[in-house]
Each structure stands twice: as C-alpha cells, then as structure tokens.
Amino acid sequence: MVSSTDCPVCGVAASQACTRCKMVRYCDREHQKQHWPQHKRSCRPFSEEQDPQLGRYLMVTQDIAAGQIVFIEEPLVVGPKWYLSDADKEASIVPCVGCATPCRLGKHQCRRCRWPVCSSGCEHEALECSVLSLGAGTPARADARSLNDYFRSDALLVLKCLLLQRQSPAKWAALLEMQSHEEERRGTELHVEAEKRVVSYLQQRFLGRLKKTKPNLLQDCGPELLHRLCGIIETNFMVIELPTGVELSGLFRQACMMEHACQPNCDFQFDPITQQISVRAGCNLRKGDHLRITYTNILWGTHLRQHHLRLTKHFSCRCSRCLDPTEYGTYISALACLGDVNKTCAGTHLPVDPLDENTQWKCDTCPMLVDGAYVSELQTHMTEQVDSLMAGCPSANQVELLLARLSQILHPNHFHTFNLKHTLIQLYGNETGLELGGLSSGQLERKLRLCDELYNVCRRLDPHSIKLAIYVTVILIEIAHTREEQARRAPGEGSSFLELAQARLKEAEVVLEKELESVAGKKLYDQLQKEIFECEKQMLTLTYNQKRDVGQK
Ligand SMILES: C[S@@+](CC[C@H](N)C(=O)[O-])C[C@H]1O[C@@H](n2cnc3c(N)ncnc32)[C@H](O)[C@@H]1O
C-alpha cells in the first residue's frame, strides 16, 4: 500500500484523497466509485476494537509489510507544547500564536488580543483571537518570565480544544470520546497543577468574561469540562517537533488509539506543514497484531517506565518486556550483588516481581535479597548524580569517574551506566586532547568494547530500530571512526579495518532510513553521507598507495 498522487483509474495526477485512508488519490468522485471494489480490500488494514483493560485499540486485519504506511491522519487539534520546562517559562523566544514561527517576546503582538506573533501581519484563528482578546491588558512586568506567565501557551492548548465545541461539532465529539482518566486524576498533583496553571487562569482571564458578554457562544466552559480536557490532553497528546525546533502538541482521533508497548511495532512521523501524522509498520505485522507505539522512554528500566506510565497515563504496562526481570536479557535495570560480610559475589540482582515497585531484588548466584525501598532510594540517588553530571557537559575523565563508582553497584548494562557509556564513546575521539589520533590502542579497544555493549543492548530492546535509530547510528559511526583510526595505524591490515568501517556506515544508512523525516535524523543522515564518502576515499587512497608501493619495488 503506497501513497500515490495519480488516479489509479486513469493515471492522471489527482488531488482528492480517499477520505478514509488518505492513501489513494482520485481525479473525481466517479473514478473513486469505480475503483472502490478493488480499493476496499486495502483501504484500512486495521479495525478499531475495545478491551476492558486497554480501552479502544487498533488491530491489524490484513498482513502489513515492514515500512508500509498504515494510515495518514489529520490532527483534531494542534497547539503549543503541553509540558513547559523551567527554561520554556523563562524563554524570550516563543512560538508565534498564529503560525508557530519562533519570535521574540514583546516585539510584535496581535493587534486584537495582544498575544505574541511573529510579525504584525500574522493572523490567527478568529474565534480564538476574540476569546483571547477578552483578557487583553498590559502585563505588570515586561521580563520574559512574567510575559510567559501572562500568555500561558499550555492553557492556550486547552482553549483550542474547548473552542472545537463551536468550530467543529464532529471533531468535538471525537475529542470527548478520548480517554481522560478524570477519576484517577482527581486529587493528584497533576490535577492540582492543572487547576493552578490552566483551569483558574482560563476562567479568570477569559471565560468568566465570555459568559457575561456572549453567554451562548459555548454550551459549556465550566471547570469540570476544562479538567476533563486537561486529562484528555495528558493521556493522548503527541509531540510534534518542527524543523525550527519548536515543539507542538497534537491530538489525533485514530493515532491516539494506538496502545503502548515497551517494544513498539509502529513508528510515526508528522508533516511539518500540515501536522498530518503518518503511521508506518516498523516490522512485518500479521493479522490480529495490535498497532503499538511507546508512550515512555525505552532506555529506562522497568520501574522507571512503570512509574512514568502510572503517573501520566494511569495504567500498569504488562508487556513482555515488563514481565521479564532481565528485560530481554539486557539486564538494563539490574544491580551488581555486593555479597555479604563474609564473601563477595559476582552475581546480579533482579526484581522478584518486576511489576511491583516494592518487590524484593534477588541475587541470581547467592541467597542475598535486597529490599525494594533500598533499591528505589539507590536509584533516586544515582539519577541525581547522573543528571547533575550530564547537565554540565562533562569531560571523559569526569564520566569515567562516575562510571567507575556506579559500576560497583550496577550491572554493566544498567540504564545509568548505558547513558554514561553512550556519552563516553562520543567523547573519546572528539574531546580536545582526546582526538582519535592521540588515543592509545587500549583506549581505542575500550571505545570499541563500549560501542559493542551499547549496540547489543539497543538491538535487544528495539530489534527493528523503531525508537533507537539515532542512538544506534551514533554508535555505528563511532565504531567506524575507530576502525578507520586502526586502519591508519596498521596500513598492512588497513583494507580489512576499512571494510569493517564501511560495513558499519552502510548499516547505519539502513537504520537511519526510518528517521529521515525528523530534524535530528536528517542532520545525522547528512553527516553519515560525508562519513561514507570519506571512508571510500580512504579505501581508494590505500589501494592507490599499495599499488604504487608494489610498482616501486
Ligand atoms: C492514548 S490512549 C489510547 C486510547 C485509549 N485506549 C482510548 O480508549 O481512547 C492511552 C490510554 O489507553 C490505555 N492503554 C494504552 N496502552 C495500554 C496498555 N499497554 N495497557 C493498559 N492500558 C493501556 C490507558 O488507559 C492509557 O491511558
């Protein structure tokens, strides 16, 4: 099933897409009708299903080959970023309220509502502007923090949802069908935060006045509904990254039905102009499979992933990775056994019940058991150490020191050591004073060993590189660099080292294919092309020199 721009009946370039799957275009209704008997067999290769645990989900109804587009969908609503970091709240460059272009706060304002726009001519949606203009005034202070607090972009996302009630009854109905976890959210920190940041802000600044001035414009804009919308966003929003670096949030009727798994089988991309989502099969999908994406970070250990999913999406994941204490043999959550006072032990501690946050951790070699509370405390302490080191652009030496300390208590593949090692492989060969040519052969070997360890973990967690394509590409490029350096040092074996380098770069090219639409993926792909060119050049130079040397003899 490939998206085509030509009408399948007459072959003429066509613009009207099948509204159901958006994969086939027709020149007119007549040709669409004529083609339906054939097209209906492949129009939508999945169905919407319902399950007491999962809620609504999507199930494959006919085999889909890896790489095929499963569906393309328009967003129900697109708006500003939902989770604003401290840096976002203090930023002086913010997305334009009309077109999301980055603009300087305070430079241009919408003539009517005074919200930040990229130029005096940039207009935004009329209804939204008229509601925002009810709160128009002058912020008490003009510093970035105060302005961002005055023009709250996360609250604007909720307002955009609310206005669908008036703008598009069909989209509004689809939005209200989405899961909100209203009951579970009540009384939680998320609810309290939403009340402070969004609900009371919208009510006091805009909606209170709207009710007085235009009581019939919206049927409902009360606090209960606003909290429900916050829950719908929290449960369903997808992050859309624009080439400008601006992050938007999107809600999609169908794409948001895809369930979570810690090893997904689908990936997705967004059109940077229309924000349409295209969902693609990350591997071969069989009839009966569920379409699965990941809602969390697959490079975290099970307890951290579970905690994140429970907190934000209100469910416990029971996928095969979460149920496996070794997480597909990666040991990414495992601790090293410290033994007891009488005897050290080389064993590994794994959770007895990976789904229970308070479970005991058992050594696979000796009878040692460790308490869940102790492990949680340890994890928190280590997270703080790793985060604080990483925040400061550490040197290889600083990373090595923390890695040595953590390695005494963690499995070599633990996600904290994984993170430190992934940083190290990029520092060795690139840090000033640690350029490739200056590394000892031991350091080169170590870099290669670290790359292999990281590569193997990535392959087990994500065999089809659905989520980790960029990570894996970085590792493969670092392996290639190291092999090229080995070739320079041992010209006699140069061609075999260069062949190894080339094979890794070619592998990276295939892996990265999935990420070509993303900003980071595109940038890395350009770098990769240069690397492949340089490697081929080195191979040619080596062959030329070898022939010349033979000729001279
Ligand atoms: C983005 S929505 C998915 C669509 C949702 N099931 C519906 O009916 O609208 C996310 C919610 O679906 C449910 N869900 C998704 N994946 C799940 C999984 N693997 N196990 C249990 N519940 C899941 C959770 O309630 C979660 O908060």
TrEMBL record:
Pfam families: SET, zf-MYND. Residues 7-43 form the MYND-type domain. Residues 41-296 form the SET domain. Keywords: Metal-binding, Zinc, Zinc-finger. The keyword Nuclease does not apply. This is Protein msta.
